[in-house]
Amino acid sequence: MRNSFTDMVACDTALGLIAACAEHVSMPAVSVPLAEAAGCVAAEDIHALTPRPEADISAMDGYAFNHAAMQAAPVGLPVAGQIAAGAFPVPLPDGQALGILTGARLPAGADCVMAAERMSLSRTGYVSPAKVLADQGANIRRAGEEFSSGAVLLSKGTRLDWRHVALLACQGISEVQVIRPVRVAVVSNGAELATDASDARADSNSPMLAALLREAGAEVTLYSVPTDNEAKLSATLAQAWTGVDILVTTGGISVGQTDHVLDALHGLGAKTVFRGVAIRPGKPLTVMAQGPRLAFCLPGNPGASAICALVFLLPCLRAIMGQQPQAALLPGVADFAFTPIVSTTHFLPVSCVPGANGFRLSLLPTVGASDIIVFSRANALLRVDPDMPVQPGQIRWVLPLQPNGI
Length: 406
Fold this sequence. Notes:
Elements: H1 11-22, E1 29-33, E2 46-47, E3 57-58, E4 62-65, H2 67-72, E5 77-83, E6 97-100, E7 112-115, E8 119-121, E9 126-129, E10 140-141, E11 152-154, H3 162-169, E12 175-179, E13 183-189, H4 205-215, E14 219-225, H5 230-241, E15 246-250, H6 261-267, E16 271-275, E17 279-280, E18 286-290, E19 293-298, H7 302-320, E20 330-334, E21 345-355, E22 358-363, H8 374-377, E23 380-384, E24 395-400
Parallel strand pairs: 5-6, 13-14, 13-15, 15-19, 17-21, 20-22
Antiparallel strand pairs: 1-12, 2-11, 3-10, 4-6, 4-7, 5-9, 8-9, 16-18, 18-19, 20-24, 21-22, 21-23, 23-24
Helix pairs in contact: 1-7, 4-7, 5-6
């Protein structure tokens, strides 16, 4: 298995095969407190329990009155009291005004509100417009003007953030049904990761992938096999794959004598979905499956591992959690030329900077698949297909490296 890329698939073929696998994986719904729901994905459509506002309310601190009565009053209207938010007011007395605070219910009979600073209050307790009388209906928030009872507030698959928490809190919702986060095990391997190795290397891939996956809403457990021993690797992979939805390995999948990951997974009963993708960097990317459980076997080079995670792993994760698989792309104008290798899809880290006519895309220098620092300088990833070379001045679409965009 490990010595062949003869059945390597094209980029879109790989994405299609992963999408087909994701259709057979589903996460159960769980209930979480609203205060802990940020970052979770809604498991169902959430409907409004009440309209907002629930009643006609004042948009400001001021005075509520009947417009026709105020218009006909030569010295204004006497103030009969004040309404605070949370109080249920009695009807407006005929020929009188009421002080009113922001958010307070409008009393029956009132059809206009004016800000306190735009009114004059006499020593005898009469209030009148300081200058111009506002229009009838002014400064009143009408019942249901934001949304009506039963309206869909959030659709299934929405990833919740502070905005959604506020929206649900205003409805008195304290618990929300969300998709149980995808459980992912990340396994790094290789004798070079041993602290006592003669040429020891730091493991940058595991923390990088864990951060990327957690940012996307997954629960991540890390494993390390700092050896080239196939038996120890197999034992760790068997342990890691127990109780998780997705297994992610990094390294050990090329054609070297110490690349044992694929054979170890095959020994655990996994079947190959595809072996190798015609991309650069990241050609060794392999996906395997054992029933509904998936294994994403990523290259060991950090740059290639990051690109494979961004382009192939995260869309699968999002699909399993009921979201749109593909992240939103942004358009920009390239200021460089690039010609792809025949039959190879390239992924280029680029700088996407606002300019006078939109975003400008600049190619960043990189040493290749092992490059780490280029991703701290880039903020987007540009896909270049074999038949679509990049030309200066061309509009191209890029994938932001941050979940909230450029």
